[in-house]
Amino acid sequence: MKRVTFALALACSVSLSVDAMSGSQQASSSVNGEDAFLNRCSTCHTTDRALVAPRTKRGWEGVLAEMVNNGAQLEAAESEAILSFLTERHGLVNVNTANAEDLVALGVSKKDADTIVSYRTEHGPFADFAALRGVPGVDVDRLDALRTRVAFRD
Ligand code: HEC
Question: How far apart are CA 84 and CA 88, in angstroms?
Answer without folding.
Answer: 6
